[in-house]
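Something for you to look into today, if you have time. Could you write out one complete protein record for me, on any chain you like? The space below this message is yours for that.
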Amino acid sequence: MAIWIINEEGPKELPQTKPQQEKLLEEDLEQWIEKEPMILGEPLLIIGRQVMIPEVKDRLDLLAVDPQGNAVVIELKRGKLKDPVDMQALRYASYISKWRYEDFENQARNYFGKVGDTDFNFNEVYETFCAEAGLDEPPDLNIDQRIIIVGSEVKEKLGSVALWLRDHTVDIKVIEVEVFKEGENLLMQPQVIIPLPVSRFTSTGKPAGGGGMQPWVVNGREWHLEKRCSPQTRKMFEVLDDIIRDNFEVDGPRWGQKGYVAYRLNNYNWIRVETRPNSLVLLILVALGKFDKSKIAETLQIEEFDEEGTIADKMGLPSSVNIGKRTEATERIILRLKEDFDIQSEAFIDFLKQTYKAFPK
């Protein structure tokens, strides 16, 4: 769409140009986005530029995280967007998916020039970013991976692939950049091509009640217990909910998230319960170093979760436990509880009481 400038003589259309004509390079676009990520239409915390991916001996243009805790791979092209840009970005995202908190922390330390600086606190940087985006509590890092591809013209092949990936729950965003010229000044107009913008008039004429909100926002209890849980895991959750509310002073359950129900202490999630048809996954926030994975497994008579195991092994595991570091002072105990787990056992209730006492002050 054209850009018009209005002066005393009336409307005048600004001439559109091409990045190539203005001798603009990918590095220019990269630098602009690095300085102001809102060019891409959303808040992003840039933590890397020309990030080396050792597995493929190649570099991704920009690496960021968003306020939802997702890693965001940003690939830039000065000219027309065509394959193999999509495959390149998918490869990068697949490798980033394996990163842990320490990998992001090291990457950010290098990017911000804080190597050797013992006072650098990446978690503080991340929490400040999330707070500025309006979140009370920062989510875990690398919950999922997203791709943003930016260029001057989308080719049909890339558009088709991007739409197919979105249909299969891969979060990919494609942005076309148009460049206009006014005298010596360049004007840039980014436009999201994929996903297609949602019209603000789409809800006109719809029945009142939902207000266009997502079902987990409208009725989170129904969403989790009837849509995400099976009858067996619903019973497990209802028993768990009774145990937590009878034994602990918490704020919850909070139903309004798509993937989990939260119980909060001091404005932080103490327990997040991911509702699933074949299990409940409990993520319990505790102070660092208070618990041993092997001892938890022995006490609760469950297995230790092996991060290095195959997907088949992980899917076939009975109830299991893992511990993952969250910050320099905290970690999360991750319990995957299958239908045969005795959620009313004294051992389990005592374990919850221990984690309640170990909640970081």
About this structure: The longest strand covers residues 171-182.
